[in-house]
């Protein structure tokens, strides 16, 4: 199996970094095309608390940040998108149309986010929230192999996002994961938005085989999701309103 460092150094000219915010156990991903002197880059799911670290890394690596993407309206932390745009107004914030959140660019299934010769393809994976999307690296010449899937909270490693708020639906999540993620090539790397168990990466094949809830039939899955008994995220009342304006709430309040 191809390792993370192999994926990073493949002929696709993809530079890839997985970053972590420990208070909310959130992963942010940095991707860049380094086959051209412009070195266009994007961030997936930046967190407000670690924006300074991420922008400093981008500067160190000589990259040009072009897009800041969210997989969904997060309930447990404030997106870094607003802070990034405050400092770098040319960066394009991205979220799904179905999320009903403010952003420069609203995407839907089938859209492509292009950076250099690389691109991310948008797959609609609602269920954790109504507007969740998964971003998957492209297929074909110049694209990294194996593919990389940024699954947000739709699919976690040996888990999945809860479905008890923000338009969540266990029925919809089951369908999303089985039709949009489990149909990807089995060697596709799975990079989620969170991990609470110490994992960093999985593959589609591994989750098809070992995911404890999504390997079950749909009825059993729904029963599991109804009985998770998780407490609401501590930051929820702050994070959701902020993320609906892509973390721009302070800037908006000043206008
Ligand atoms: N304790 C945390 C919140 C943990 C939580 O609810 N995480 C969400 C993803 S963030 S919306 C989730 O779906 N978890 C699934 C699971 O099985 O844990 C806090 O207070 O922030
Ligand atoms: Fe979430």
Q: How would you sum up the major sheet?
A: 6 strands, mixed
Q: Which ligands occur here?
A: the ligand N[C@@H](CCC(=O)N[C@@H](CSS)C(=O)NCC(=O)O)C(=O)O, fe (ii) ion
Q: How would you classify the helix and strand content by structural class?
A: alpha/beta
Roughly how much helix do the residues carry, as a percent range? 25-40%
Mean pLDDT: 94
Q: What is the total tally of β strands?
A: 12
> How much of the residues is beta strand, in percent?
15-25%
Strand order of the largest sheet: 1-2-3-4-5-6
Shape: globular
Assembly state of the chains shown = single chain
Gap between N and C termini: 52 Å
Describe this structure in words.
With 255 residues, this protein is of the alpha/beta class. The chain contains eight helices and twelve strands. The strands form two sheets. Strands 1-2-3-4-5-6 form a six-stranded mixed sheet, covered by helices on one side. Strand 10, helix 4 and strand 11 form a beta-alpha-beta unit. Bound molecules: ligand L3IBWBLD and fe (ii) ion. The site of ligand L3IBWBLD has 14 residues, from loops.
């Amino acid at each position: 199996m191809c390792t993370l460092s192999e994926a990073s150094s493949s002929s696709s000219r993809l530079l890839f970094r997985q970053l972590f915010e420990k208070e909310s156990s959130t992963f942010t991903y940095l991707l860049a095309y380094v086959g051209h002197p412009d070195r266009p880059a994007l961030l997936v799911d930046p967190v407000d608390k670690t924006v300074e670290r991420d922008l400093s890394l981008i500067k160190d690596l000589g990259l040009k940040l072009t897009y800041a993407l969210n997989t969904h309206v997060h309930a447990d932390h404030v997106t870094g998108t607003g802070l990034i745009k405050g400092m770098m107004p040319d960066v394009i914030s991205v979220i799904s149309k179905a999320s009903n959140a403010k952003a420069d660019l609203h995407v839907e299934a089938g859209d492509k986010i292009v950076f250099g010769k690389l691109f991310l393809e948008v797959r609609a994976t609602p269920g954790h929230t109504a507007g969740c999307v998964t971003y998957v690296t492209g297929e074909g010449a110049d694209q990294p192999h194996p593919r990389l899937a940024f699954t947000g909270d739709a699919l976690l490693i040996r888990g999945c996002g809860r479905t008890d708020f923000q338009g969540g639906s266990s029925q919809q999540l089951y369908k999303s994961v089985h039709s949009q993620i489990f149909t990807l090539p089995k060697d596709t790397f799975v990079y989620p938005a969170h991990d609470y168990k110490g994992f960093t990466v999985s593959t589609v094949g591994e989750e098809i085989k070992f995911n404890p809830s999504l390997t079950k039939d749909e009825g059993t899955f729904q029963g599991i999701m109804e009985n998770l008994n998780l407490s609401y995220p501590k930051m929820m009342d702050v994070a959701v309103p902020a993320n609906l304006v892509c973390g721009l709430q302070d800037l908006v309040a000043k206008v």
